[in-house]
């Protein structure tokens, strides 16, 4: 009787199901983490563009590009490679910053596409 119950019971079924689901759980966690990194890259690009424009409106037109470059890159750490593509305008200053989107870990391999942030601000008259 005990042998019959042992052969036809469901002991160990949860363990087998968990082992079967483990790869699915791991792949799901990796995909969620990658989505977080993509979102963070866009957040960094937008913040860097805002900072670049803020510095560009405070600088003179001759020093605008240098001030934008410095302020935009200041907020991107070494692992998050990016560049300030343009920062110009008279009356209305606009900046575009691109940040590389990493694969799983910042600073290693990057996707071929980049996260882009745009910002603009009206240049206020100086008294």
Report on the structure:
There is one protein chain. Strands 1-2-3 form a 3-stranded antiparallel β-sheet. Strand 2 and strand 3 form a beta hairpin. By secondary structure, the protein is α+β, with helices and mostly antiparallel strands. Helix 2 runs antiparallel to helix 3 (64-74). Helices cover 50% and strands 24% of the residues. The protein contains 3 helices and 3 strands. The longest helix is centred in the N-terminal third of the chain and has 46 residues, at 13-58. The mean pLDDT is 79. It has helices spanning 2-8, 13-58, 64-74, and strands at 82-88, 92-102, 110-122. It has one domain (2-122).
Keywords:
127 residues, alpha+beta, three-stranded antiparallel beta sheet, 50% helix
């Amino acid at each position: 009787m005990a042998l019959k119950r042992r052969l036809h019971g469901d002991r160990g079924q949860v363990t087998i199901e968990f082992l079967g689901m483990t790869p699915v759980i791991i792949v799901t966690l990796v995909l969620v983490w990658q989505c977080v990194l993509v979102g963070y890259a866009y957040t960094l690009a937008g913040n860097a563009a805002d900072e670049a424009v803020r510095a560009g409106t405070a600088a003179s037109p001759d020093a605008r590009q240098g001030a934008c470059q410095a302020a935009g890159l200041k907020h991107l750490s070494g692992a998050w490679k990016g560049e300030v593509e343009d920062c110009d305008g008279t009356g209305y200053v606009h900046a575009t910053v691109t940040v590389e989107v990493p694969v799983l870990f910042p600073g290693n391999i990057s996707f071929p596409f980049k996260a882009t942030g745009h910002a603009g601000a009206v240049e206020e008259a100086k008294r």
